[in-house]
C-alpha cells in the first residue's frame, strides 16, 4: 500500500473512530434535519403537496445539516493542538485533506441515509421507485459538497468568526450542487427516468472531480500557520 | 516585508496618471455618445441607455476577479507580497463595479420588465460574485495573523474563479428547465451601428478606467506596506526591553 | 560529537505584522549536542521552536537541517524531527495505543506494535495502553506525548517546556528519557524554566529575551549558582 494511501486511511480512520465514539456530529446533524422536516411540515400550507417541492426541501436541509457537521470537523484537532502534531509528521497535506474529506463524506452519507426516509415519511414521497438513481445523485452531490466543505471548514476554523463563516463562504460556491441535485432529485421523485438526469449528473461529476483535486492541492496553504 | 522601491512606485504613478487621463477622456466621450449620439432604443425607451454603463461595469467586475484569481495563484505559489497587493486592489475595484451592476440592473429591470429583480442568469451570476467578493474581504480581516488572512483570501479567489463558470452553467441550465415568460434581450435591436459604436467605446473607456483605478489603488497599497516595513525596521533596531547585556560575566 | 551542523538558524526572524516574535536568531547545533534555552515568558522561545521544527515559516532567514534549507512543500525530512510541547498533540478519545498507532502509520514506521510497546514501557504506560487518553492525568499525558515524540526515533528532538505541570514521578520519567537522549547521535534543544534540570543535562546554555539570544555559552563556562542568581535577578524570576 503506498505511503500516501496509508496516510489518507489513517486520517480518515482516526476521524471516523472519533465520531463513532462521540457521535456528536451525527446526533446534531440528524436532530437538526428532523426538526427542519417538522418545521417544513407546519410552515407549508397544507394545500401544497410536499412532493412538488421535495427536491428543494431535501437539499436545503442536507446543506445546512452538512454545514453543522463540518463546523465540528476540526474540533478534535483544536483540543490538544493535534493539528500541529499532524503537520509535524511527514504527512502529505493532500493526504490530510483527502482523509478528512473521506471521513466527512461518510458521516454525511450516513446522515442522508436517515434524512431521505424521514422526509419520505413526513411528505409521502415515493422513495421506492428510482432509489438507485437517487442514491447516485446523493453520492455525487455529497462528494462535491464535502470537497469544498472540508477545505473551507479548515479555513473557517482558523478565523475569529469560526464556524459562522462557513455558510458565508460555502453557500455561493455550492449553488451548482444545489441546482443540479435538487432538480435531479425532484425529477426522480416524480418518476422521471434516470437517463433524463444525465446532464445534471455529468455536471455534478465534473464539479466533484474539479474540487476534490483543487482542495487537495491548496489544502497545504490553508493549514500552514 | 516589502522594501521601499521608489523607482517602481514612481513608474506606477506615471502610468496611473496617464491611464486616468485617457480613461477620463474615454468615459466623457462615452457619456456624450450615450446622451447625444445614440438613438433611443425602440422597445425599452430612454432607460435602456443605462445599459451602456451596466454592461461595461459587468465586464470590469469579472475582469477584476480574473486578476484577483491569477494574482492569488501567484501569491500562493511564489509568496510575493506584491501579488497580494495587486489582488486586494483589484478586488476592491471589482466589488465596486459589481455593486454598480447590481444597482443599474434592477433600475433598468424595474422599468423595462416591471420587476425589480428577475433571475436573469447574468445578474444572478453577478450577485454570487458579489458574495464571493464579500467573503474575500471578510477572510482578510478575520484572522489573528494577517498573513494567514491573505492566504485564505487567495484560496477563496482561486476556488471562486474556478467555480464562477460552473455557477454560470448551472444557472443557465436551471433557466432552461424553468423558462421564464419574459424573454430578455439586453442588446435590443442590433441593427443600428451607433449602438455598437457606443458600446465599444464604453468597453474601452471602462477598461481604461479599471486599470487606472487599479494602478492608483495599487500605488496606495504599496505605499501603505512600505510604511509598515519602515515601522518594522524601526522596531527591529530598538533595544531589547530587558537587559541587553550579558546575563552573567 | 560530529562537526557538521545538524540544525541551523540563519538570521531567522518572525514578525506578525509589525510585532516581532523572533528578531534575528543565529546559531547552529552540531550532532549530539544538547542545548538548553532559557528565557522569560514572551521571549519567543516557543515561536523559535516552531520555526526550527518547520511548522512555521520565518519572515526572514532560513532554517537548515543537515546542511539543507527546509523544503516546506516536501514532507519527507519531517521524520527526522521530533517535538514535545506543552500541548500533547493527542486525541482524548483514542486510547494510548491508538494515538501512537496513528502517528506510527503517518510516519510509516516498520514493526509498529513492537515500537509502541517499547515506547510505552519506557514511559511506564504499557499497562494503560487500552485506556482513553482523556482519562489520563497531566503527567501521564505528557509521558504519552513523550512516547509519541520519540516513536519515530528522530535525530533532532525539540522540547518546549516539557516539565510544565508534571508531578514528581512524571518528571523523573522525563528526566530519565532525556538522559538517554544524550547518546551522541541525537541533537536536542530543550526550552525550560527549570534551571536545575536544564543546566544539568546541557552541553550548551543559551538565553533568549525579547526575541533575541542574549547569551550562548558552553555549559562548562557557566557557574550554576551565579547563573541562577543573575538570571533570576536580570530576567525576572525562575518558575
Describe this structure in words.
The complex is a heterotrimer of chains A (225), B (249) and C (239). Chain A is an all-alpha fold and 225 residues long. Chain A has 9 helices and no strands. Chain A is globular, with a radius of gyration of 18 Å. With 249 residues, chain B is mainly alpha-helical. In chain B, 76% of the residues lie in helices and 0% in strands. In chain B, helix 2 (51-78) crosses helix 5 (146-177) and helix 4 (121-141) packs antiparallel against helix 5 (146-177). The radius of gyration of chain B is 23 Å and the shape is globular. Chain B starts with 5 loop residues before the first helix and ends in a 12-residue tail after the last helix. The model of chain B is unreliable at 241-249 (pLDDT under 50). By secondary structure, chain C is of the alpha/beta class. Chain C has helices at residues 45-53, 96-107, 112-122, 138-150, 168-181, 195-201, 224-236; strands spanning 5-16, 19-30, 34-38, 60-65, 68-69, 81-84, 156-160, 187-191, 204-209, 212-218. In chain C, the strands form 2 sheets. In chain C, strands 6-7-8-3-9-10 form a 6-stranded mixed β-sheet, with helices on both faces. Chain C has a 4-stranded antiparallel β-sheet with strand order 2-1-4-5, with helices on one face. The radius of gyration of chain C is 18 Å and the shape is globular. The two termini of chain C are 32 Å apart.
Outline of the structure:
The complex is a heterotrimer of chains A (225), B (249) and C (239). Chain A is mainly α and 225 residues long.
Radius of gyration over C-alpha positions of chain A, nearest whole angstrom: 18 Å
Biggest sheet overview of chain B: none
Order of helices and strands of chain A: HHHHHHHHH
Structural class of chain A: mainly alpha
Q: Can you count the helices of chain A?
A: 9
Helix content of chain B: over 70%
Structural class of chain B: mainly alpha
Q: What percentage of residues of chain A falls in helices of 4 or more residues? A: over 70%
Count the DSSP helices of chain B: 6
The fraction of residues assigned to DSSP E strands of chain B is: under 5%
- Secondary-structure element order of chain B, as H and E? HHHHHH
Low-confidence stretches of chain B: 241-249
Multimeric state: heterotrimer
Kindly report how far apart the N and C termini of chain B lie: 37 Å
Largest interface: A-B, 31 and 32 residues
CA radius of gyration of chain B: 23 Å
